[in-house]
Amino acid sequence: DVLLQVNVDRGDYRIEKIIYESLPNFYVPANVYVPAQGSGPFPAILMPVGHSQGGKEGERQTAIGLARKGFVVLKYDPIGQGERLQYYDPELRASKVGGPTTEHSHANGHTMLIGDNVARYRIWDGMRGIDYLVSRKDVDPSRIGCTGCSGGGTLTTYISALDERVKVAAPACYINSWEELMTKLGPQDAEQAFPNFLAEGLNIADYVELFAPKPWLSLSTVEDFFPLEGARQ
Which candidate, 71, 111, 132, 192, has a CA 20 to 30 Å from the CA of 10? Predict the structure, then answer.
């Protein structure tokens, strides 16, 4: 259920500020970018965000550009970012434990005790976001895409592999191989290291194979800290 909606008119697009529940009493603040022209149904994009402190307020130009091209775009705050700090200190007016990656890893310490991973909750936030998108009358439920950069690329990869409603995926600055990561960089924040993942013979490319044969674009750059060799593999 959507608990709040505030509309902001930007001329050739509008922003709908909403809050939805992904789990009971687990609230997800989100921005929905909607084209101003036409009534749809429009194709829609779920856009998980990278590890910016501002959460959904980061990478806005991509969402704006897509809305201007006729897409409905949903961007939401992950836990530990934007309006969704899990360890907020009123005196500090900031997180008690640090930035987004530290918030994620701190939360993951609890889930590891039961052999779980904090990514489970982050993936579910995104899948519930797709539930919201396909419920809109101005969205074509048969044309759902997913894209995001860095940490958003990680979540794009997971969500696209696991939710069959995603028809096209474009993760940026994430796709790699564990061999390259371990030798050149090491494991990153908590949601990128699942219990028993390597022991079960899995690798990052397995997510791509799960999505096949639907359209997939891996975006990488020579200036990212993820090794480009892994993306080329």
Answer: 132
Alpha carbon distance 152, 161 (integer Å): 14
Backbone angles phi and psi of 143, in degrees to 5: -130, 75
pLDDT at 214 over 90: yes
Angstrom distance (rounded) from CA 58 to CA 77:
10
**Residues written for the chain:** 233
Cβ 147 vs Cβ 156: under 8 Å: yes
Residue 229: CB atoms within 10 Å: 13
State CA 222 to chain mean position distance. 22
pLDDT digits (tens, 9 = 90+) for 116-140: 899 999 999 999 999 999 999 999 9
